[in-house]
Automatic annotation (TrEMBL):
GO terms for molecular function: phosphorelay response regulator activity; transcription cis-regulatory region binding. It comes from the Bacteria. Keywords: DNA-binding, Phosphoprotein, Transcription, Transcription regulation, Two-component regulatory system. Residues 129-230 bind DNA. The lineage of its organism: Bacteria, Bacillati, Chloroflexota, Anaerolineae, Anaerolineales. InterPro entries: CheY-like_superfamily, OmpR/PhoB-type_DNA-bd, Sig_transdc_resp-reg_receiver, WalR-like, WH-like_DNA-bd_sf. This is Uncharacterized protein. GO terms for biological process: regulation of DNA-templated transcription. Residues 7-120 form the Response regulatory domain.
């Protein structure tokens, strides 16, 4: 993948449409990645920091409007809706929700490219993602302010507790090795730092369990590391 090219995230559950959009945009000089639903889109937004999102509305698990709401918490990334919902009311709702442009299906290939380029010119470079959201477990982690919301309740963390949580959140849903956490939080990996990390995880669990007693947010994967449980 040519890193000098701008990245477009296509959020669409119809494989033929995804294939077509990828072909159109790659020929036009963009790098393209895709997500079949809103949940995957939020993960890829945080991981790959795309320059623009092409967003379908009617999708399983999380529709486009809900996905857009979460994206706006994470970044000012420009969003173009491409949807079979093309009535005036749908278009008005789109702009009311904060989209940058709206295309109804079926679309013309050249129009897609022209709209994408126009929105990118107007928008400039989007800010880096500073807020991670996990709607399936109702968790939000702000990397700048260190604010943590769990089921809409504020969780007060010490700086080191937040450091552990942020490492897990950035890598979620992957397992994060004990050594990676130690290096990130303490700047070194040793038996002593791993013990300190273990104690911090214990404290984090206690704080989150006060809000959701029967849900374990941080899982210990034996001999491998910890992972954030980002799905219920």
């Amino acid at each position: 993948m040519d890193e000098s090219r701008q990245r477009i995230l296509v959020v669409e559950d119809e494989p033929d449409t995804v294939f077509l959009l990828k072909q159109i945009l790659r020929i036009a000089g963009f790098n393209v990645l895709s997500a079949p639903n809103g949940h995957e889109a939020l993960k890829k937004l945080a991981e790959y920091q795309p320059d623009l999102v092409l967003l379908d509305i009617m999708m399983p698990e999380m529709d486009g409007w809900e996905a857009l709401n979460h994206m706006r918490k994470m970044s000012n990334i420009p969003v173009i809706v491409i949807s079979a919902l093309g009535s005036k009311e749908d278009v008005i709702q789109g702009f009311s929700e904060g989209v940058d442009d709206y295309l109804a299906k079926p679309f013309y290939n050249a129009e897609v490219v022209a709209r994408v380029k126009a929105v990118l010119r107007r928008a400039g470079r989007p800010q880096e993602v500073s807020r991670l959201v996990f709607p399936q477990v109702d968790l939000e982690v702000d990397l700048l302010t260190q604010e943590v919301l769990f089921h809409r309740q504020s969780i007060r963390l010490t700086p080191k507790e937040f450091s552990v949580l942020s490492v897990l959140a950035k890598h979620s849903p992957a397992i994060v090795s004990y050594s990676t956490i130690s290096q990130s939080v303490w700047g070194e990996d040793s038996q002593d730092t791993r013990k300190r990390t273990k104690y911090l995880v214990y404290l984090l669990r206690r704080k989150f369990e006060k809000v959701q007693p029967r849900f374990e947010l941080i899982l210990n994967v034996d001999r491998l590391g910890y992972k954030l449980q980002s799905e219920p």
